[in-house]
Amino acid sequence: MPEGHTIHALAARLNRTLGRRPVAVSSPQGRFAADAALIDGRILEAASARGKHLFVDFDDIVLHVHLGLIGSFHVKPRADEARATSPARLRIEGADHVAELRGPMICALVDDATRRMTLEKLGPDPLHPPDRAGDGAGRAWERITKSRKAIAELLLDQSVVAGVGNVYRCEVLFRHRIDPFTPGRDLGRRLWDEVWDDLVTLLPLGMAFSQILTMQDQVDAAAEMVADGSSLAVTERLTGERLGDHFERRFHTYQRTGEACDRCGRRVREQVIGGRTLYWCPGCQRRRKR
Ligand SMILES: [Zn+2]
Listing from the earlier edge strand, what are the strands of the sheet with 90-93? Predict the structure, then answer.
């Protein structure tokens, strides 16, 4: 499932390629045809993301998209358009670019009040500037510290933290040596603050490169490229069609069941928790507080 950084990158891509201009909107597949007609020809004012939700403003009508497990939303230069594999639910065409949405969990037109209701149910988003600058850590903490659920389960709960998916969950718990089965109410506040701060660091790198980066050597290299602006050339080539490949795909625990932990040598284990497979190291992930 696309994690929050993918949706934020998509919003930025839509703004960059189709924003502030009139667009042609259609539903080649047909299921969204009546709604598409309502926004066809309007100006795509702004796309924005919160957690895994995407909102696109067309004057007083808002397009709400959630990709779910299998959805995809590509934005390509018109010149690069290959023959369509399957007709899209939604197609947005500008002068130079085309965006196509397939297989979403949610694709609906909503009003601003409905958008507010969706946003109110979401926890703080490490990629949302007000949550980053404000007390995002504290808002999530209010939920975590009252819960008997395991921190590994709470991290996937979008009402606790918005945007974190399974890969970031596994990897961030490993990076901080946290026992993933620690009940939220037994987790130390300082340890939680470390996790939040790390998400605030990691997610923008994932967004810039369309890759989840959690290995420290890659994190450092990516942060340097973002700081000096050289990441922009990579970002602007991405279409959302496939994962970025600027960095080698490497993780500490994710999908490494049975392999040796790169920190302590014990074998990585897996167990379903929160509806998704958690990967963790029983040898060095033992912290509950610090
Ligand atoms: Zn280990």
Answer: 24-26, 90-93, 97-102, 72-77
* CA of 205 relative to ligand 1 center, distance in Å: 25
Topology, domain 4-120: N-terminal domain of MutM-like DNA repair proteins (3.20.190)
pLDDT (tens digit, 9 = 90+) per residue, 73-97? 999 998 877 766 789 999 999 999 9
Name the residue among 193, 152, 165 with its Cα closest to residue 281.
Answer: 152
The residue from 42, 115, 276, 287 that is catalytic is 276
Per CATH, the number for 129-280 is: 1.10.8.50
Ligand 1 centroid to Cα of residue 157, in Å, is: 25
Q: Enumerate the domain spans of the chain.
A: 4-120, 129-280
| 259 belongs to the catalytic site | no
- The pTM (predicted TM-score) of the whole model is 0.94
129-280: same fold as 4-120?
no
d(CA 153, CA 150): 5
- Single out the catalytic residue among 2, 104, 124, 204: 2
Query: Tell me: the pLDDT tens digits for 15-52?
Result: 999 999 999 999 999 999 999 999 999 999 999 999 99
